[in-house]
Write a structure and sequence with these properties.
single chain; alpha+beta; Mth169, Chain: A; 3-stranded antiparallel beta sheet; 3 helices; about 25% strand; elongated; Phosphoribosylformylglycinamidine synthase subunit PurS; ligase
Length: about 90
Amino acid sequence: MGRVVVEVMPKPEILDPQGKAVAAALPRLGFHGFTGVRQGKRFELEVDGAVTPEVLEQVRQAAATLLSNPVIEDVVSVVEAGAQEAQA
């Protein structure tokens, strides 16, 4: 069984009140040097079988039509879970 991770973020021109709240809290908690925060969403989809290019394309389509609101959000990443962890 494979797993695909989808990350969705608000479009840059969209206000992000949750991100602003986190940005304001960071210095109060002793974390300095951050100039901004944007908060997004992460989805983990388990697939039956291996993660193939066809599966990734199907997930991209689902992300664009169901997992994100294309008016205010961008799908920024659709990757196999192991590939994402190797990048971190």
